[in-house]
């Protein structure tokens, strides 16, 4: 008996030791690469007190991940990551705690509070706001006022906020992945020719400030049938005030899909708008919905030209392959990919760690 007891103890000890070490191995895998960190702190306890001075200190042609950690606070500055500075990871203290605010307007090229032009940029837990018309109660005339402009390839935003009114987020071009972000605005507030998945994001409509006129969530800019770009909203929440269309075309072959998303009553029954100059060419557009729910998802009165995607196209657009055919998302400094397909991320990561 004693022998058996000792054996069992030894067995369990061994089990827990191996479980424990497998576990810490998993956590090493989860925390991924180590990287140098530059601290930005307005109270003077960091390396820099503005985000831009931290970015300026990073050498051109940076080839390894470097983290710019931005302590809580409201940073009043325009921030630009130039094309020659890839592999920057900007990390805030939370999208409600670290905010970058600017209020430039009129030009989509010069107004953005945040401009990201390099490839391989990762941004987490920070908000970008263009305060010219946000909140709308500041009674400025409504103008183009961009909060963020993203033109690099392989750029990803995790738990970030984008706040504006007209043209909030210029998703210019390249493969982008937005997860658990909040995007707020009223007119064409997610626009451009990016090839992007917005997953589990909150789309916060503030069209109530348009005095009865309808807003537009998207103005996507795919311009030929050969272009692979488009906006995919997957497991998102569309909420807010006033009335809005899901989108209107910025270019001839605009492509937008809302997939498995909650659409509140802010979404107009017609759903989509063809913008004046596209009348008669609506068949070129790919505006679709699949698996959505909520009052605004009733498609009974939708425009007749809403697209009905084949199962093949639908699976391609809504799988991560649409933005990531080479695994770049799994090589980010924080592995947001592990939690991609399931909410039981811990179980999945253990499983992956053990394999
Ligand atoms: C940033 O500040 C910390 C501590 O104040 C220091 O150890 C580190 O070397 C500084 N980093 C840079 C890049 O200046
Ligand atoms: C969409 O196409 C599928 C077949 O691919 C068909 O079963 C379905 O009825 C179509 N839906 C509409 C609204 O046309």
From TrEMBL:
InterPro entries attached to this UniProt entry: Pectin_lyas_fold (IPR012334), Pectin_lyase_fold/virulence (IPR011050), Pectinesterase_Asp_AS (IPR033131), Pectinesterase_cat (IPR000070)
Active-site residues per Swiss-Prot or TrEMBL entry: 188
SUPFAM superfamilies hit by this protein: Pectin lyase-like
Pathway named in the protein's UniProt entry: Glycan metabolism; pectin degradation; 2-dehydro-3-deoxy-D-gluconate from pectin: step 1/5
Enzyme kind, highest EC tier: hydrolase
The Pectinesterase catalytic domain, residue ranges: 38-308
GO molecular function, one term: pectinesterase activity
This protein's record includes keyword Glycoprotein: yes
Matches recorded under Pfam families: Pectinesterase
Gene Ontology biological-process annotations: cell wall modification; pectin catabolic process
Catalyzed chemical reaction(s): [(1->4)-alpha-D-galacturonosyl methyl ester](n) + n H2O = [(1->4)-alpha-D-galacturonosyl](n) + n methanol + n H(+)
EC assignment: 3.1.1.11
UniProt-listed Gene3D superfamilies: Single-stranded right-handed beta-helix, Pectin lyase-like
Origin superkingdom: Eukaryota
Signal sequence segment: 1-22
Protein keywords: Aspartyl esterase, Glycoprotein, Hydrolase, Signal
Keyword 4Fe-4S: no
Biological function: Acts in the modification of cell walls via demethylesterification of cell wall pectin.
Family, as annotated: Belongs to the pectinesterase family.
Name of the molecule in the record: Pectinesterase
Organism name: Camellia sinensis (Tea plant)
């Amino acid at each position: 008996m004693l022998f058996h007891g000792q054996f069992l103890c030894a067995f369990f000890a061994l089990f827990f030791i191996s479980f424990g070490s497998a576990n810490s191995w998993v956590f090493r895998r989860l925390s991924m690469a180590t990287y140098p960190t530059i601290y930005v702190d307005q109270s003077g306890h960091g390396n820099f007190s503005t985000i831009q001075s931290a970015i300026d200190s990073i050498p051109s042609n940076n080839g390894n991940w470097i983290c710019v950690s931005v302590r809580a606070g409201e940073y009043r500055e325009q921030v630009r990551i130039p094309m020659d500075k890839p592999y920057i990871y900007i990390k805030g203290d939370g999208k409600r705690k670290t905010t970058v605010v600017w209020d430039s307007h009129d030009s989509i090229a010069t107004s953005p509070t945040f401009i990201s032009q390099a490839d391989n940029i990762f941004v987490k837990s920070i908000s970008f706001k263009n305060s010219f018309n946000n909140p709308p109660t500041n009674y400025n005339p409504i103008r183009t006022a961009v909060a963020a402009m993203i033109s690099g390839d392989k750029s990803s935003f995790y738990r970030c906020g984008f706040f504006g009114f007209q043209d909030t987020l210029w998703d210019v071009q390249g493969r982008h992945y937005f997860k658990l972000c909040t995007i707020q605005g009223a007119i064409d507030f997610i626009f451009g020719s990016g090839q992007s998945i917005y997953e589990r994001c909150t789309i916060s409509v503030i069209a109530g400030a348009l005095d009865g006129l309808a807003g537009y969530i998207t103005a996507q800019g795919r311009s030929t049938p050969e272009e692979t770009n488009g906006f995919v909203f997957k497991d998102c929440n569309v909420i807010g005030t006033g009335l809005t269309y899901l989108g209107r075309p910025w270019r001839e072959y605009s492509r937008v899909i809302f997939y498995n998303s909650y659409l509140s009553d802010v979404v107009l029954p017609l759903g989509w708008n063809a913008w004046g100059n596209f009348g008669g060419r609506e068949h070129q557009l790919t505006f679709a919905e699949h698996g959505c729910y909520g009052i605004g998802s009733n498609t009974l009165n939708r425009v007749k030209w809403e697209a009905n995607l084949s199962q093949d196209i639908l699976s391609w657009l809504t799988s991560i392959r649409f933005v990531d055919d080479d695994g770049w998302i799994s090589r980010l400094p924080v592995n947001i990919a592990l939690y991609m397909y399931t909410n039981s991320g811990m179980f999945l990561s253990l499983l992956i760690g053990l394999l």
